[in-house]
Amino acid sequence: MRTCWRRDALRPELWVYQPSLDRNERGHALVSMHAKCMVVDSSVALVGSANFSKRGRDRNLEAGALIRDHHFVQSLLAAWAEVDDELVEVRVR
Prior knowledge:
By secondary structure, this protein is of the alpha+beta class. It is built from 2 helices and 5 strands. The protein has helices at 54-58, 70-82; strands at residues 14-17, 36-40, 44-48, 64-67, 87-90.
């Protein structure tokens, strides 16, 4: 199986927000995080809406913002810290 990362590459930490909120009759959470957020070196953030899917690439009109503002990035990290018990780590291959 092919992977995205070389064996000797430093792999990022990836986390998914899975809230423990009320769920519908099918077990799906009534609230979800749709925005995609990436923080690099605690100083730069990429925030957007694009999904890594065929539809996200080919059909949706998506947007993203690269933010180089220390205070904004720290507030984003603080917001994630508040829901730390609802973040699930994704294993990167």
